[in-house]
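Obj.: predict assembly geometry.
Materials: sequence records (below).
Method: joint structure prediction, all chains together.
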Amino acid sequence: MDLHEFQSKEILSRYGVAVPPGRVAWTAEEAESIARELDARRFAVKAQVHAGGRGRAGGVRLAATSDQVRSIAADLLGTTLVTEQTGPAGRTVRRVYVEAGVEAKRDLYVAVLVDRRLGAVTLIATRRGGEDIEERVARDPSIVERLEIPPDGIGGADYAGFAARLDLDGAAGEHAAVLFRNLVQAFFDLDASLIEINPLAVTAAGDVVALDVKLVLDDNALFRHPDLAELRDVDSLDPVELQAQRNEINFVRMDGDIGVVVNGAGLALATHDMLRDAGGRPANFMDIRTTANSIDIARGLDLLFGNPGVKVVLVNIHGGGMTRCDTVAEAIGISVRRSGRRLPIVYRAAGNNAEFSRTVLNNCGVAYMPADDMAHAVALAVAAARGEAA
Amino acid sequence: MAVLVDLGTRVLCQGMTGRAGTYHTGRAIAYGTRVVAGVTPGKGGTRHLDLPVFDTVAEAVAETGANASMIFVPAPSAAAAMIEAIEAEIPLVVCVTERVPVLDMVRVRHALAGSKTRLVGPNSQGVLAPGVCKIGVMGTVHARPGGIGIASRTASLTSEIAANLSAVGLGQSTTIGIGGDPVHGIGFVDCLKLFMADEATEGVILIGEIGGSEEEQAAEYLRAEKPSKPVVALVAGRHAPPQRRMGHAGTLTIFGRGDAASKIEALRQAGAIIAPDAHHVADAMREALGRR
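Observations (raw structure tokens):
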């Protein structure tokens, strides 16, 4: 679960992480009055959207006066921000964060995450921060310093040594070592999957201040954190994808004309690869989770039948121990009846109860084009989308 | 005959008395797996599916000689169940449970280090040696005994490819689902080592997907070891929607991009045969075996 910058900063400041003073504004007037209260020489006005690359997309701007803060906020609020991570549709800016500017002597990139290869929590950092961090690391991976954290020894890791490796000495070194330890503590306490500070500013006085913070929580651990689960910004999620998730279906909207129904993420990815190779354009990505029943699946299919852009439906089910083919067929029967649309359906089923599932479809009065295997199914769907007989 | 399991495999099920545990243990028994016990804390001394139930794994092992565990314990307690099995020194532990918190898996990985256990999963469909033993939840209708080993990160695609293999006359020695979670037990490299050492396995199929570094690690192993058996690899997700590919700024490149193209290139350069798509995996393996 992604948290907004203002939420992340509030949570991390409880762990002693220094952040610039600031608050959230929903209107330009509110932004101006926050700036007046802050009484600083410089301000940053930042769009609160769940996406990286905000700065380069114009979502983070600096102001010298509270008047400027108001006009920047008026500019940002209600607009759609398109960054390299949002996709072409972008994200609507519903609120901005107004904070005091910080005079940085230098800045770093710092993150805590789980290194999948080691299976261990790892602190990483580079000597210089900024939005071009990915490109710089891609050019020279050796600029990244790492510190592996023992699973039961948050206090046992050498944070001071890590600060020294980053050329932080004196007061800055001491403050950074404390910050690193606090970040790791927060990572464990919060069941985070990522804490990223970019940039971490070092001031002339040797203070370390987190200018931008990204906190991502492990969805699978939210049962341990009901208070944090409440922070989810439902407005920022695609309503269609949210409805699918509530019905045990992973769903991503795309802009093509072939609705895709598949069980399992791997089979779904493989189906998309073949569909695109054959010149087809999927309208969605769908992965029916093993825990979905026919009612859940039918609700997921409603999203697809309700999409006027869908011209053909491609069903590719490999029934395993958890999802049987007839469960999906039953869901198709329910959803087709409910939508009343007569879309061409290409039906390919293998594995558990494949034969029986075709009987279920027939009994529901669903007309379909049977396919023998994935390649056949893909060819039929692409032809039907082009208005050709396969 | 197979890797990880054989005719001497005696399975206990942690969480057998739950709904999923009951259903899948029944299916495993019907397939011919020797299930010998269930473990559910607080239900020791009772019987379920006509099998004895114990409070702890250690008791179940002492009483029944179980040497493998299949875990269906719900996510909040799954890590504790895995660690209990590791501490009881069970050689093979297969965890089916999905949505285990990643920090719990960090603790499990720590418990695994230096232990006598091989962990498969979590979020795994399990291990299947067709005709010999099934530990997990995979479909078995199209699986046939034979000489192809499959290591996979994804369940339904494994059944698909096993079915295609069976259709061209290539049975499977063992299929292993290493699981889809970021931190898990055995990986592609462990599976490759097992299959290369197994006399019954003639060729190996790796079913990968975008994200993580399993494929890159497999490529490193293949480049260093140059094994004699053919390895056919499929990496799903060449055309994944951007939201499935998106990661977090900075962290992606630092741990490798994990996109399909770079994984495919790494495996190709290491000598693996790349299947263009799921439909051509079985044919690619048949050709590779025919050339030898």
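Conclusions so far: Chain A touches chain B through 71 residues (CB under 8 Å).
To do: check interface contacts against the pulldown list.
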